[in-house]
Specification:
The structure is a homodimer. Chain A is of the alpha/beta class. Chain A is built from eleven helices and eleven strands. The structure holds a DNA duplex (30 and 30 nucleotides).
DNA sequence: TATATCTATAGTTTAAAGCTATAGTAAGGA
DNA sequence: TCCTTACTATAGCTTTAAACTATAGATATA
């Protein structure tokens, strides 16, 4: 048994069809049929139930599929690592990020580029908790900036900074007159919030829960910029990370703080403990840690 | 790149010698040389430093070796799982155990054998904490009875019972006259204890530490029976698990309890969360859990 | 210098993974 | 019911690459 067979098997399962899978794998259909049959003979177990129209996994097939996917992922990850060892100095740094990332990252990158001028930096927005896991485990990113404190056997996350959430309202909103704004006040308003999967959404909904308030969600948006525009048009209020909101203010809006202890999140840097990281990636991680250690010390 | 190449590479690294590795792998030396060279070309990295007399790993080689070993282990584990799926009902249950296991296990096995008369049971003594990990991860055992409360992402351990340690002394020993025996008393005596790596050793030494006493270790033994014999000859005292000591008593020895709260250990059943376990193994694990739940309830 | 011990190269054999062509099987439409 | 469609399996041939043997090259030890 070898990895080729695992690859053949997994794509066959995914395509639920020998002919299509064969096309995906750039081999002929009989070759694939043969390979799968040989595999089944080798383990003396039926792995696929060839039903009329479509394939079903047997119990053994299900186990074999799960294991194969895991093995292939690890194998592919190893090849990424080797490639990164080869391209040391001229490679890529892939970063997963949350929304407020872009406000502090440029400050760090300027200095970093002096040491590693040829490094290519790839930033992708990582939204929900599963995606954070997934993008790390699949080696899509070298590290990720997240509000999830993940700590398991494989992933290590270290806190970078704390960030408050602020309320963005139209300047003519009645709340702007109030001295102190509570969650109960916001509950009466029409709330603009990120759609499911976005990290800020979870933070905000948790705060509502902790404050025993029920949010009146009217708009669900994908980009925080959209939320700002809607507020500007007087269509509702929104809650945004502090770092973000500074750049979002326009003459027609007002930024107010909310009277709550729950509207604060910690932002972490998370990475795989065991993965090989090129010197460039290590340096960048170090720079980020330094930046915030210095930043925090400066604040106090 | 395929698993064959990983296997060739790892054994070459382990043997530090192409010719020997080739023999291990039942292939000719030129075939192996060729395979490794092809591998190095494929990843465009030198993996081995061919020094005069012996091989050295490069940095990339080291990473590749570590990953390969892990991948091969997982791959072999999968094959064990498939084999167990095939042999369901007539397979083997492999158990790792600590010393006191044998006193309660026969009670459970009698009933188990009614349901699974053809199952082969393999018991191996698992000594230190690393061995517990290793034997589980390498699929050497289906589960293990241990005094280590392991809980990580892969291994789950559930408590079975608590067990006191007792003191075994010669019947003429002066301690036999004392009403209450403390660790300070034992510290003055010549102690017989298991060698490094045995689970009881760690438990006992920890208790000495907690009681601020320094053990006077004179004999280190591998089998608890040896400890009993030595005590019978009047060569020292020993500390043994309660369940064990009942069968160890002879006319020339005396069993005494020790005045300490630290001489108790919890015994756990540990297994891999993610591994496929045959119905027989599941039933046996269930039987063991039931036995001790019932046993505990019966005690109180 | 000779010998032992190892790895690399050259050329050949062989196993198996791939191909094309085609047969077999079940579902769906006329 | 029969034909078409959409699949998978079988048969026989081709090609790739992994293995082999024989031998050359390199380096340390006697």
């Amino acid at each position: 048994m070898d990895l080729r067979q695992l690859r053949y098997f997994t794509t066959t399962v995914q395509e639920k069809n020998f002919s299509k899978a064969a096309k995906m794998l750039h081999i002929s259909q009989p070759s694939l049929s043969n390979a799968i049959m040989k595999l089944e003979n080798e383990v003396s177990l039926q792995l696929l139930e060839r039903n009329t129209r479509g394939l079903e996994l047997t119990e053994a097939g299900g186990l074999f599929y799960a294991r194969s996917v895991d093995l292939l992922r690890r194998f592919d990850n190893m090849q990424v690592e080797l490639k990164e060892m080869k391209d040391v100095g001229s490679g890529t740094v892939s970063i997963g990020s949350i929304e407020s990332f872009k406000f502090w990252f440029p400050k760090i990158i300027r200095n970093f580029k002096i040491n590693y001028p040829n490094i290519h930096i790839k930033i992708s927005e990582i939204l929900g908790e599963e995606k954070v896991f997934d993008s790390l485990n699949r080696y899509n990113v070298h590290f990720t900036i997240t509000n999830q404190p993940i700590n398991n056997d494989e992933i290590l996350s270290t806190p970078l900074y704390k960030e408050k959430f602020m309320l963005l309202i139209h300047k003519d909103d009645e709340l702007n007159e109030k001295e102190s704004i509570t969650f109960q006040d916001i509950a009466k308003k029409e709330l603009i919030i990120s759609t499911t999967g976005f990290q800020t959404r979870d933070d905000i909904l948790r705060a509502f829960k902790d404050e025993n308030a029920i949010p009146n969600i009217l708009y669900e948006i994908e980009r925080l910029e959209t939320a700002c525009s809607l507020v500007e048009e007087g269509l509702g209020v929104t809650i945004l990370p502090e770092s973000y909101i500074k750049s979002a203010a326009t003459p027609n809006t007002a930024i107010r703080s909310i009277d709550s202890n729950f509207l604060e999140r910690t932002v972490y840097l998370a990475f795989l403990k065991d993965r090989y990281l090129s010197p460039a990636v290590c340096k960048l991680v170090e720079d980020i840690h330094c930046f915030f250690r210095w930043d925090v010390r400066n604040d106090t």
